[in-house]
Design brief:
two-stranded antiparallel sheet; single chain; mainly alpha; rod-shaped; 112 residues
Length: 112
C-alpha cells in the first residue's frame, strides 16, 4: 500500500513538474473586485487552486479519522470493562439453612 502511495505522489509531482517546465513563462490575468487585476504565473495558480481544493478534503479526512479513533477507544474501554466483570470469580454460594417443618403435638391421652 505504501508503494502505491509513493508511486501516486511521484506521478503527480512529475505531472506538475512537466506542466511547470512547458508553461513556466505563461502569465494569467485574474480580474478581482473594483477593477483590480492580479498577474499570476500559470503554474503557481495551478498549485494554489490544487491546494485550495485539497485542504477542505484533508481536514474532513483527519476529522473523520480522529472521530473513529475516539469511537474505537471508547468501545475498547467498554470491552475491557466487560472482560474485567466476567473475569471476577463468582462468590461461593452460602448454603441456606433447611427449614425444619413444625412438629405436630400429640394428644395427651393417647399412648404412642
Amino acid at each position: 500500500m505504501r508503494f502505491l502511495k509513493v508511486l501516486f505522489w511521484l506521478l503527480l509531482g512529475g505531472l506538475v513538474a512537466g506542466f511547470v517546465i512547458y508553461n513556466g513563462d505563461e502569465r494569467v490575468n485574474v480580474h478581482l473586485w473594483s477593477g483590480l487585476i492580479a498577474d499570476f504565473s500559470l503554474p503557481l495558480l495551478l498549485i494554489l487552486v490544487f491546494l485550495a481544493g485539497l485542504l477542505p478534503v484533508l481536514l474532513a479526512y483527519h476529522a473523520l479519522r480522529w472521530r473513529m479513533r475516539q469511537r474505537i477507544t471508547g468501545l475498547e474501554r467498554a470491552l475491557n470493562d466487560l472482560r474485567a466483570i466476567n473475569a471476577m470469580p463468582e462468590p461461593a454460594p452460602v448454603p441456606m439453612p433447611v427449614p425444619i417443618p413444625p412438629q405436630t403435638a400429640l394428644p395427651l391421652g393417647d399412648p404412642l
